[in-house]
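Record type: monomer structure entry
Structure origin: computed from sequence
Chain ID: A
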Amino acid sequence: MPTYSFSQVGLYNQCPKKYQFRYLDRVETEFVSSPDLILWTSVHATLEWLYKQINIFIVPTKEETLAKFHELWDGWIKEAGEWLMYKWDQTASDYIRRWEHYIDSYYNKNRLNRITTDFPIKRRLRKRMKIFQRFRW
């Protein structure tokens, strides 16, 4: 008896012909990108970059983070090509404005505006080093 995954059953319920092309006939299709996928890929990559910077004690400003997002967004939009279709009456500027709102909220919620390079961990380590220096042989 064959085993079916949730995605296979969901695809069959959505469209039996689509299921047939994908799983029975194994017709290869090109990956289709969307503005939403590009937006969230850019968001993820930007936040990953932000926290890599923070981990090496560099706190990018909100403007630097937005610049990184624009760099990633522009690259992936160029790669997607002209055929990219936006939902309803939205444009690329709507997606960018949405991301700028997200990053503004993220900075305010996580207080990234107030982080300095003198992190509490760094201060604690310095304090411990002073204690250990007393006990040197």
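Annotation 1: The chain has six helices and no strands.
Annotation 2: The chain has a mean pLDDT of 80.
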